[in-house]
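As a warm-up, study this chain.
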Amino acid sequence: MIMGSNVPLTALSENVGSAIVSLGWSSPTGEGDADVSVLLLDGNGKVRSDADFYFYNNPVAADGSVQLLGKEPTGEGSEDRISFDLTAVPAEVERIVVAASRYEGARFGELDDLKVTLADASGESLLRFVIEDAGQVSAIIFGELYRRGEEWKFRAVGQGYESGLAGLATDFGVDIEDDEAESGAEHGAESGTEHEAESGAEAALDRAVSTPSPPQATLEAVPAPRPSAEEEAAPKKRATRPRTAKKRVTPPRAPVKSLAENDSWRQARLFPVSALKNDRDRETRATSVLLSVMAQVPRFGRRITAPFGAPSGRMETFTEVSLPHGDTPRRPDGVIRVERAGKLWTALVETKTNGNPLRSDQVQAYMDIAARRGYEAVITLSNDVALEGSPLVDVKIDRRRKHQVALWHLSWAEVAHQAQMLIRHEGVGNAARTWLLQDLLHYLQHDNSGCHGFQNMGAAWVPVRNGINDETLCQGDPRALDVVESWERLIRQVCLRLGGELGQKVLPAQRSRRGSDPGARRARLADQLCLEGRLQAELRVEGAPGLLTISADLRTAKLRTSVEIPAPEQGYPLTWAKRLIRRLAEAPADLHVETLVEGEAGGPRGTLERLRPEPGDLLPKDSSTRIAGFRLSLFKGMGSGRGSAESGFIRSVDDAVHRFHTSVMVHLDVPSSGRTAVRERAAV
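Now compare it with the structure written out below.
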């Protein structure tokens, strides 16, 4: 592409519901770097709030529409990748600006090979835009994604900003503390340096958009030697580098034949699990294993810490650190530190394994220690899954303190998901790092590690199930709310596992008519459980033609997995029915197929086994009846136990979702345009 040109994404690929935008550059000295930023703009060309500005201190959108994936080296220099889920972008957002900025007085004219590339969800590169002469600017808009009707287009921009990141953000409506910026600029003017003025503005931007943090200890830098007069007079030669593509290293699909004499031989592991005897041993080893791999595999470490506001930089991790706290020192399970541009981001880590609950007094003590020492976060890590508006531990936060500490939670299932995504689908570009991640994943999935994710529906599960069968469960019973919360945790974990297997984004979907308040929504679902005896959830699988619905009927002990696919916009109904049956040639014979008819409760239906010889049985008798689509359903017995054993409810839900996707949904047509996604986004 050339500057100012634009192109619709649907003209380049049919798989553009998600996109990866990569910003790349190289430096003659090998030390040049820049930070990417993304702004979501409304129809007025402004951000709706400061939360629409994503950069190194705010890298992930809550709805999954934007995620800054961090930097990775390439054969030519460095590349920064951003993931966009265009189907999740709010309807009021009309433009997405992709920019980058340099800090400490550096300019883009000092970098070479400035470019932006865009790839679709399958990883196929669609376009490339090279900025030839950046000039003496410290911020550049590389390009922008924008809506035109129901489709997205990309425009190559290449506009520079001499005022840097602060000037770029201000132009698009991000609020900056003017007093802070002006004081930084005045200080720079008095000292005669432009670098300090720019640093003051960027510091003010950090304070305005991110969680405030106290001054950190700066690292002493070694000054570079001054060039001689002959070197300054000589023309600068561009450093030559081999232009080789980055090789993605992933494990082979087919298992390598083992050299063992028999199956009783066990392969040696870097992270053994045989010597774990108690919960303390499990917690200590799991923490050390995870933190060490995070530090040695930067891309994995970045994936784990980015949602918590950690910057992209050099990471070091520690275990069993002693910190003073009153009369007795406290020992958090781990500490994570990230250094960027001389500033430190620090998080304390508290770990639990084997289903053990987090203790409020422990977490409270770490929150107090972090606040006094100026640390940014406390991260809790356990098998439980955090829910919006429902904290796992109750802690008191002193709002009078100038420095506030963020409390975050991470599930072991999320850790395994990120490892799966990198190992099986994205790669880390290095065989040794891939092997490290494989050994970590093997450790987490071993029965003895205690890191299995959510595995218990809670004490209320059996009484609620019995109360539904006996029709004695009344609305307002708090046990029903406990079961609804456990169900939501289970669904979030199912999404993580399925997404890790597919290499695609899988998220729980919430109907807009149910409201946005999580507490009120769960209360309504608890009342519905008491009345109807059913638990239901919808999963949005990237690239699927519709939402995957999972329903658990506690009265009949049946699980139902289903998907509704819209009717094609062209052709004849009989052609639709025949084509659908052909697509499902390898699906289970007991698959239920139902025709959805507009204005009626239900249409013709039957099992796939009965419909294969006569697809026309799916058509309504009245030829004038309009077909809206088809619903495909599989039924399965529900596990009764509250745990994750073979006969447990959690295992049965996992198996039902996995079976339905692998045997039914994979055979369906992927939407060929953005129309299905637009309709789905309007309903969800």
